[in-house]
Amino acid sequence: MFVARSIAADHKDLIHDVSYDFHGRRMATCSSDQSVKVWDKSENGEWHCTASWKTHSGSVWRVTWAHPEFGQVLASCSFDRTAAVWEEIVGESNDKQRGLSHWIKRTTLVDSRTSVTDVKFAPKHMGLMLTTCSADGVVRIYEAPDVMNLSQWSLQHEISCKLSCSCISWNPSSSRAHPPMFAVGSDDSNVTYGGKVQIYEYNENTRKYAKAETLMTVTDAVHDIAFAPNLGRSFHVLAIATKDVRIFKLVPMRKESTSTGPTKFEVQIVAQFDNHNSQVWRVSWNITSTLLASSGDDGCVRLWKANYMDNWKCTGILKGDGSPLTGSSGQPSAMSTVLGSSVQSSQNALNGMSAGRIGKRAPFAPPLRQLTSPKIYQPPAYY
């Protein structure tokens, strides 16, 4: 049901992250070889490396694209305690690189004293803002006041989470009913702190972010976290990659008119799957939030979908080499129940599924020679 093709990425070490741009026509990869590579998709569906450069002096954990209305902009973060912003520019007419594009570093963010473990751009309706989280337990939010000058970034917020941070996700909702909100996950081994996922919300009165919720039931190390696209819902859906896959629903409670504190949420766990039987490293939604993809140390990508009763089930299993897997539990060997727009957008749900995490293991756990070759999954053309 799915076509898999391997890309000879030519990274010299583990690939930690794979990120698609807004349109899904460009891809960036980063690795422990301290480099980032940019790939462009040709008309015949082949991926070609169009740029490769050394970005940091340590392993590069994550790479992410800004919304294209801000230009072709990437951000990366590294074990070297920094995050960097990169912009693609086209050579001027009097330049030797006339008409050719190349990537230049616009800024280096050096506020962290420890490894910067994740970097994410905020939703575009908030402007050009960049968020980092670090092993020192601090989330930092930067803003570019002039989107035409990406060398100037101001540190707007520093939020101490008291736990080593591993991943971060913005709530993409642009509704005025929902203040800006993000979730941060922790892989801290300190068992005295319960709740490895914290939700922070912006308060208009104090102009600061305050903790709105802690998911106390998540006590194991969290490797990835992802808010689902909102699409007008009154509640929020959050997927978490830990020792299993979990999906939470956050339902805002009605606020008192005099209340100035953060929103209180009714937290519901709507699904929990241990099918990977191992650590789960990545979770990613498709654009309509109807399909969730996860990857784990069992060497598989698993696809999850809810029916009209909001019961989540596995609708597809893909092995690291791209071949479908028939499970002994009678699970489907491929996506047989996802049609139409869900299939069309399922490739986006696989963003980063072939990337590893912090130098431990790639989630597919393929043979060593494949650890430096990302996999691309595509639905068949007749869909």
Automatic annotation (TrEMBL):
WD repeats lie at residues 8-40, 273-305. Coiled coil: none annotated. Keywords: Cell cycle, Cell division, Centromere, Chromosome partition, Kinetochore, Lysosome, Mitosis, mRNA transport, Nuclear pore complex, Nucleus, Protein transport, Repeat, Translocation, Transport, WD repeat. It is found in: Chromosome, Centromere, Kinetochore; Lysosome membrane; Nucleus, Nuclear pore complex. GO terms for cellular component: kinetochore; lysosomal membrane; nuclear pore outer ring; Seh1-associated complex. Belongs to the WD repeat SEC13 family. This is SEH1 like nucleoporin. The gene is SEH1L.
